[in-house]
Amino acid sequence: MSLLSDLINLNLSDTTEKIIAEYIWIGGSGMDLRSKARTLNGVVSDPHKLPKWNYDGSSTGQAPGEDSEVILYPQAIFKDPFRRGNNILVMCDAYTPAGEPIPTNKRYNAAKIFSHPDVVAEEPWYGIEQEYTLLQKDLKWPIGWPVGGYPGPQGPYYCGAGADKAFGRDVVDSHYKACLYAGINISGINGEVMPGQWEFQVGPSVGISAGDELWVARYILERITEIAGVVVSFDPKPIEGDWNGAGAHTNYSTKSMRNDGGFEVIKKAIGNLKLKHKEHIAAYGEGNERRLTGRHETADINTFSWGVANRGASVRVGRDTEKAGKGYFEDRRPASNMDPYVVTSMIADTTILWKP
Which residues, in sequence order, are CB contacts of 251 under 8 Å at separation 6+? Predict the structure, then answer.
């Protein structure tokens, strides 16, 4: 085994200028991350100077077998924490051979919204709180839970420490450092309310980069759990009953919100979100109705509400924002399995471009 470990950790720069690029894309379900690697002749720092590539879309649910070629367009580069050295991870989106975005390519429309001059001028910032659950590989039951049984009630686990309260910290800390190594703007981690559930935060990130960074952070987490022999779940309600669900709370601000008088801009933006509540809920993740029940720190899915420091509201404004009269707000509705390209661009569209 030591030889295998030595080979995995070989430093290629000792003998060659060639590097390995791992191309990452989103499969047909909208949540399944796929990737494959290719050799490049040297270091590349601009994603648009990377070669386009293709894959078999009939094997990912994205193309028919008789016309299965889907083209990958490189969009963002990150350092590879697994191969290290000059090797890279490449976030891609997917197109037909004719250059049309395929239906599951949500990045394309998001990029159009984020390139709109009015959106660019507002410099939208995002901080996304990604909750997830670690499951035992064969049982699909949270790690640390008794087989076929339940742990003690919620209470001691949130931000907890100890072998009977914090399960999977080695995976979580490995992910934290790997994301920092990759160049992802990961801003923190914490244990969540349900045992076996954790959260990491990405941001503040500007515009389309929030989606790129969150997707690559998810990919890195999938790879680390693969190594650790556990399964990561982004299900918004992995365990039914009196247990917290998993969300992806999305913190948001624009330049106008961050400037003096920004609280009035925030209230106007929240008013727009209220008017488009149904459209946002429909795009905020699969199975979210199991999570947004009005219990366990959620608002009811059918009712829009907002409040200062209210974690039972659809949208929460922080005490600091209220006191300063400017700042940001938190959209608490997105589910843990939401597509960050969809959610971030939709918030920008509703609060900056849409006129009620």
Answer: 126, 127, 128, 129, 203, 204, 328, 329, 330, 331
pLDDT value, residue 312: 84
Strand bridging mode 19-26 / 88-95: parallel
Regions of the chain short of the pLDDT cut 70: 1-2
Alpha-carbon torsion, ordered 142, 147, 150, 154, to 10 deg = -30
Residue 158 structure tokens: 């949130």
- Helix (H) or strand (E) segment spanning residue 233: strand 230-233
d(CA 128, CA 334): 10
Helix (H, G, I), strand (E, B) or coil at 125: strand
Residue owning tokens 């879309």: 57
CA-to-CA separations, 319 to 27, 200, 270, 308, 322, in angstroms, rounded: 40, 22, 16, 6, 5
> Which residues, in sequence order, are CB contacts of 49 under 8 Å at separation 6+?
none
HSE-CB at 283 with a 13 A cutoff on CA atoms is 17
Cα–Cα dist 350/232, whole Å: 32
- The answer to whether the Cα torsion of 258, 110, 276, 133 is positive or negative is negative
Secondary structure of residue 79 in the 3-state scheme:
strand
Of the candidates 190, 151, 195, 193, the one whose C-alpha atom is nearest the C-alpha of residue 172 is: 190
For the chain, report the end-to-end CA distance as a whole number of angstroms. 63
pLDDT in tens, 264-292: 999 999 999 999 999 999 999 999 999 99
> CA-to-CA distance for 317 and 320, rounded, in angstroms?
8
CA dist 297 and 253 (Å) reads 22
User: pLDDT, tens digit, for every residue of 113-141?
Assistant: 999 999 999 999 999 999 999 999 988 89
Whole-prediction pTM: 0.96
